Structures are given as C-alpha cells and as structure tokens.
C-alpha cells in the first residue's frame, strides 16, 4: 500500500505541474487488484500542502480502510469504473480548460489527427446529460454509470478517456501515472481540435487507415514506437 | 488591524501570482466589521515593490484612518458594496483577460457547466452601461450602485462576482482570500465559456438541477465537499 | 549617455520578460533631446547575450556616434518619429502575437473598454499598405512616414501606439520604460479585443464619455490615479 | 561525431524549452555530409532523462552505426529529406499546437505578414493526404516523399517547413539549431495566422513586394539584418 499511496500522491502532484487543475479541481486514484484496495486523493485538500499520508485507502465498495480524511467527492465514480473494467489501474478527473469547454459544448472531441490517434482509437465521446433523477440520486455513482454506458463495448484502454456532459473529463490508464499521461493528452488534443475547427469548420475526420496506423504503431502487438 | 493589513497585502500579492493583473491593474480590500474599518491597496503602486505598510486604512465613509498613500481609485466602489452587503468580508477588482472580454462584449457569462456551478448559482451578470451623468458624476460610487442594481435581490455570496459593462470584473467573498479565490474562478469560467461558445454556438445552459447539485455540494447546509 | 544606454538596455531586456518577443524580434530606443542623440539596440543580437555596451548611439540623422555593432534594421523608422514628435522620449517595435494579428487582419484595434481607455484615447489605428515604391525605396524611413500620416494631427502621447499593416506594432512614450509599458498595454488590449469580438461580433465601441473619463483619470490635468 | 551528437542533443532539449513538445512528441536530427552520417533522437525517450550518449548515429540508408537505442520512429522521413536536399543540415518534427491545428484543418498557413516573410518566402504548404497504400506501406518513407512532392521545385531553405496533412509540422535548416529556430517560427506564425483569420476572415495575403523585401533583408545576398 505504501508504494501505491506514493504513486497516487505523485500522480496528484503532477496535475498542477501539467497545468490541468486550478485549486483543488482534480483527483487521481489507483487500484491494487490483488488486495482489492483503491487509493485516492482526499477531498478539498490543497495540492501544495498535500502529503503521502493524506491519501485515503478504500475497498472497492467505498469503505475507508486507512486515512484520516474524507476521500474525494468523486470517489463513487472512480469505484464504479474500477468494478466494471478490470484492465484499469488508475483514474483521473480534472476540469482542464479545453476538455471542459468541449464538455460544456456537449460535443465529442473529434479524431482529427495523429496526435489524437497516437492515444485514442476514435472520437473522445461526450456522455448524454444525466436526468434530474440521476443527479438528485446517487450522482457520483451515476456519473460512473453514464461513462460506462457511453463507452459501451469499447476497450477502455483503446479510448482512455471520456468527457462528461456539462462537467469535464475523466481519463484512465494501466496505472496512476499512465492515467495522468492520458489526461494531459486529452487536454492537448481538445485544445488542438478547438483551434483546428476554428480555422476550418469544414475539416474532415482523420482517415481511418491513418488513425489505425498511428494507434497500432504505439499500442499494437507490433508496436515500433519507443524501446522494447 | 495588523492582521487585516497583512491579509489584504497577501491577497493583493496573489493577483499577479494567479495571472489576474498586468502592472497595477487590480486591487483587493477587506473589512473589519467590528471596528467598521476597511483596508485597501494604495493607488498605482507596483505589486513587487509593495509592502504591508503601504496598505491604506479607511472608515466606511472613505476617511483615511491610517496609511501614507492615497487609496485605490476604485475605493468608493468597494465601500458602497460593503455598506450594502453585510455578508461581504473582501472585494477584488481586476482587468483579468477573459472576464474583461465578456465585459467588453456586454454579455453575462452564461452558466454552462459544473466548474461554474461549483461557485456561482446562475449566470455572472453584466451590468447595464452607466449613463453619461453617472460617469461624469461620482463615477466610482455609481459603479458600486450599478453592481448592486444588477445583483438585485440575489445573495451576493451565491453569486460572488459581476462584470461591469465595458470595464471588468468585481468579485467578493467572506474575506480577502476568499474574494481572490472567486476572482480566479470567475476568470477561468470566463475563459472556458469563451472556448465552449466558440466550439458550439448553439450550446445549452447547464441543467438547473445539475447547477443546484454542484453549488449545494460545496456551499449548501449538507455540503459534502472538502473536510468538515 | 551612460544612463541612457543603461535605460535602453534594461528596456530591451524587458521585452522577453513581458513575453513580447520571440528571438530578436523587437527593439527599443530612447533619445537625449539635449544632446540630440539616440540609443538603440543592435541588429540581430540575442537578448540573453546582450550587454549595455552593445547599445548603439546615433545622431538623429543616423550617423553612428558610439558602438561596435550595426543598429537595429528599424532605426530609420525610430529616427523619423523622433524628428517629427518632440514629445517622444522612447520607442518600441515588436512582433507581439495579438497586436501583429490585428496588423495582419488590417484592422484598427477598436476601443472597447476601460483597459484600452486608460492608455489610448481612441482606436489604435492600422496604417494603410505601403506602396511597392515605398517598400522598394527607403522602406524603414517610409514606415516612419506612414505612421505619422496615420496619426495625423493626434497627440502621440494620447495614442501611444500604432499597428503597421501586415507588419506589427510600434509604441512610444516619454522614455524607454514608458514606451515598453505602452507596448505591453497594446498587446494586452489587442488580446482582449480579439476575444471580445469573438464572443459578440456585434459589440459596441466604448461610450465616448467613459473613454474620456478613464483616460483623463490617468493622464488629464486632474489625474487622480496613482500617487502625486 | 561527438560535436554533432552534442548539437543534436542540445537541439532536442530546446524543443520543450520553446514549448514545442508535450512528452516525447518531437525529434531533431542533423547530418554530417562529409561522413554521410545522421544523428537523431532515440524513440520514446523522455526529454529530461535524455543524455548525449542516447543519440543514435545512422548512415543515410538507416543502418545504425552507433548508439544503444532504436532511432526515432520518424527516421525514414528525415533520411529521405536529407537524400533529396543536399542543402539541409538539420530537421525537426514536432506536434506543436498551432501548426498541428493547421495540419488538421488541412490548409496551408497563409503568408500574412512580415513575421512570416522574414523566414518563409510564400505560404507554408500542407501536403495532400497519403493514400491507404502509402500509409500501410513504408509510411515514414512516404511521409518524406509527400513533403518532397509538396515542395516541388522550391528551394527548401526558402520555405524551411511544411505541414503534413492530419499530422503536424516538419521544419529544417542549415544545421540542427537553425532547424529548431525555424520550427519555433513556424509555430508562432501558425498561431498569429489563426488569430488574424479569426479577426478578419476576409484578410489579404501579404503584398508580394513586401514579402520579398523582408525575406531578402534577412536572407538575400545584400542582407542588412544582423551583424556581418
């Protein structure tokens, strides 16, 4: 658990370092699948005052196992995603500027180029609006459910992020570090797409064969990017 | 007074730190309701040369009680707001880029997402234009009056900021630190709304039930955000 | 001269500090009216390698009086402005992003708010295109002439900057430091105006009485901004 | 080779310093024409962990001569350009934000002002889309070929960069340092053009005589910019 707490702590500290959060508007978690335990940032604690010991440890039903603070108010969303997708090791939520703008616009972030296709195999979908009942009920749990509904049968590691309508982005990965990496990509891709659509509103989606080439170059069985 | 001067000094220094001001284009004040005294930044003094002792202390009618400098030229606006709203403890004025752009556009900043709704329970209103008489008369006092006219019967802590037409934002809070916090939020929310409206000019306001959920999660009697 | 060289050196170093220049794309000069001497940045010297001794001293006809380098390639523009306007003490040229974008758009930067009116009493005009003859002849001198033609009978200290069509901004002031200050304002005002026009293409110019109020509050005979 | 490895290493480190890359999204190479050897960044190695010894040395056919890592996945593109253009000494590829947005928009970056014309003698062209066959075959080699097809008979040092459709910018120069310089210019020019086109969609290209004047002032036989 010490290692996982350290990883989650460092991943949380990376959020302001990459310019993804203002104040406390973001959180990172990670899961230890063996022990069935999740580590997450405490709610409303300032990033620069935060220490490893402030991290909260829960089981996947949300019972606190270790930690002196209340967990992030978005905890139920994280847990729902961990329960549904065994391949997820880390999850991030932020209100990063451009991804949040797309969420407010209510549109999926279109796959327009290789920067996008190096990480996401298709558009980054925007969820439907939650109903009044869903919001007034178990809101954070229902946020997790609508993300799952939106991903449908897709492999979550082939589309490692979603934007929640009128809210903001959730991203994930094989661990906390990877999840933050994907959150940075999601924000940068959202920013480039905004500018590109402004330059040419009639632009086209990336050619499917170019998207596949780039995604597979980094993530396929014969990946040639990076070092073996 | 020493504590309040220190608080106002630090809150003023936070303005350039958060990227809200160019040169001396901003000011923060705070009030001690017990003593009926207001502390405010001196006029036209550079942020990096400013010390605690440069802060100016006034009574709520604007008479200088302590300090070697003239107070901010916007002092009469601050005082009018303190007189009208007993719940205000701190006030900030800046020319932060995106909030000022909305003020120049003459439009209220629409409530489009949860980032907005975490702090503002509704649109951030833009005042009407001041008349020639109002500008040529007691301009700064009249700026305070038009802000009050714009807020009407709203709780100022439920809408902790307004943009003044063709001018820029005023924000406030329960103390100087809180006021600066809300000024940062106002600027970020203005920026996201600009981008979102550019992406989808036909976007919708946030659902009222989602706005209420988020505002109350942070500010309601049963707030679950942060630590008790 | 030592003092003026120091001032011009420091003002040039301020350009990258304020984010106004990429590489060597900018220059500041100042004039000693008593001695009739102008100090200007050398051409194409990197800002971080530059020292006070690299500054070039010229008379107002452009003859080098002191210095080991060639002066800025824009020197003839600076000199023409000093000759025409006795009130100018310092001049700046940059390719700052947003002011340059307005120059490329070929439009004057409209006076839309008090941020603008605190420094510029009216739109920031864009010059006409230079003719082929003017460009192929004494180009830099003709750039100075077209700036003068654009200002016409206006007081240059009431409109301390102009954008040159398809080129970029020139700004000035009572000394080198003041000129850089106005160049920073010009860039920020250009940025806000771009965003404001994007939010509401039908926005209105600032009310003339509000513009006058703000300009005079800072620059009029009864200025109340800052310390006496 | 030690000198060239050092130069390529430093030029690669400049990419994050100038804000041109996120993570490992970029690479710089340089060529020693005498020895016929190319030095390039290794694939997927983080910029802050990279050392001079991580650089990879290849011959112009792509055979590794020295180095412990796999070369950048874009190596075949670099080599094709070196083989075709004897004047090139260094090449850069990035996914810099605004240049990538133009690539996604599928439009050449129009020559709109002197900032552009100081470095590029004409529009910065966008390549055609690669066909499915070209992408599924020798993709990186074909990327080099389509850049060459796009430049056609132009002098590559008179148009030291191109944007590849739905991908991003390639820039070059007489050495690695110069190539990075041009990549910075390309990104800044792309950003200004985006803003300028937003301000005035009906804006005009730079007058040909003004473009020529500026390009020749810096690059012509009688260049008067900088120090001899």
- Number of contiguous helices of chain A: 8
Can you tell me the CATH class of chain A? Alpha Beta
Most strands sheet of chain A: 7 strands, antiparallel
The helix/strand class of chain A is alpha+beta
Order of helices and strands of chain A: HEEEEHEHHHHEEHH
- Helix share, percent of chain A: 40-55%
User: Main interface pair?
Assistant: A-B, 34 and 30 residues
Global mean pLDDT of chain A: 95
CATH topology name of chain A? L-fuculose-1-phosphate Aldolase
Task: Say how many strands of chain A there are.
Answer: 7
Low-confidence segments of chain A, ≥5 residues, pLDDT <50? none
Calculate Rg of chain A over CA atoms: 17 Å
- Percent of residues in β-strands of chain A: 5-15%
Q: Architecture of chain A, according to CATH?
A: 3-Layer(aba) Sandwich
Shape of chain A: globular
Oligomer: homotetramer
- The fourth-level CATH homologous superfamily of chain A is Class II aldolase/adducin N-terminal domain
Supply the number of structural domains of chain A. Answer: 1
Distance between the termini of chain A: 29 Å
Order of strands, widest sheet of chain A? 4-3-2-1-5-7-6
Domain Class II aldolase/adducin N-terminal (chains A, B, C, D): 6-194
InterPro entries (chains A, B, C, D): Aldolase_class_II_sugar_metab (IPR050197), Aldolase_II/adducin_N (IPR001303), Aldolase_II/adducin_N_sf (IPR036409)
Protein name (chains A, B, C, D): L-ribulose-5-phosphate 4-epimerase
GO molecular function, one term (chains A, B, C, D): aldehyde-lyase activity
């Amino acid at each position: 658990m010490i290692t996982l707490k350290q990883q989650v702590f460092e991943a949380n500290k990376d959020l302001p370092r990459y310019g993804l959060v203002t104040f406390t508007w973001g959180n990172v978690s990670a899961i230890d699948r063996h022990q069935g335990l999740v580590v997450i940032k405490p709610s409303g604690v300032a990033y620069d005052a935060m220490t490893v010991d402030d991290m909260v440890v829960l089981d996947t039903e949300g019972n606190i196992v270790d930690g002196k603070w209340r967990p992030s108010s978005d905890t139920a969303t994280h847990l729902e995603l961990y329960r549904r997708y065994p391949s997820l090791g880390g999850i991030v939520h932020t209100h990063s500027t451009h991804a949040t703008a797309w969420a407010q616009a209510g549109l999926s972030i279109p796959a327009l180029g290789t920067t996008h296709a190096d990480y996401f195999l298709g558009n980054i979908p925007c969820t439907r609006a939650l109903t009044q009942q869903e919001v007034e009920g178990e809101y954070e749990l229902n946020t997790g459910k609508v993300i799952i509904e939106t991903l449908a049968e897709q492999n979550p590691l082939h589309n490692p992020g979603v934007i929640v309508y009128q809210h903001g982005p959730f991203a994930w990965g094989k661990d906390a570090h990877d999840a933050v990496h994907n959150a940075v990509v999601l924000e940068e891709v959202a920013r480039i797409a905004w500018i590109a659509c402004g330059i040419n509103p009639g632009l086209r989606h990336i050619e499917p064969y170019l998207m596949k080439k780039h995604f597979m170059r980094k993530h396929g069985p014969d990946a040639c990017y990076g070092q073996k």
